[in-house]
Amino acid sequence: MNIQQLARDDGQMVRQYAYEDSDVYAIDFGPAGDETTVDVADGTVIVVTGDDQREFDLPEDAGDAQAFMKNGVLTIELEEDR
């Protein structure tokens, strides 16, 4: 599942912000997001909430990626590959 599919399939709000040297995605998981953990491994963002695990493929041209959760909002920062 890629990031844009999340919005269609799960009804989550996804926002994308494009900057000169990076892209940022913000995904609102709501109140359940407070107990959510997130990790980035091999071009995939892994989100775990209780027994539920979701994986999101990052774009192939994504450079360095970081992901973190705060107040139920997952933020994924993708730096351009240089």
Automatic annotation (TrEMBL):
**Which Pfam families does the protein's record reference?**
DUF7127
Name the InterPro entries for this protein.
DUF7127, HSP20-like_chaperone
Q: Which domain of life is it from?
A: Archaea
Protein name according to UniProt: Hsp20/alpha crystallin family protein
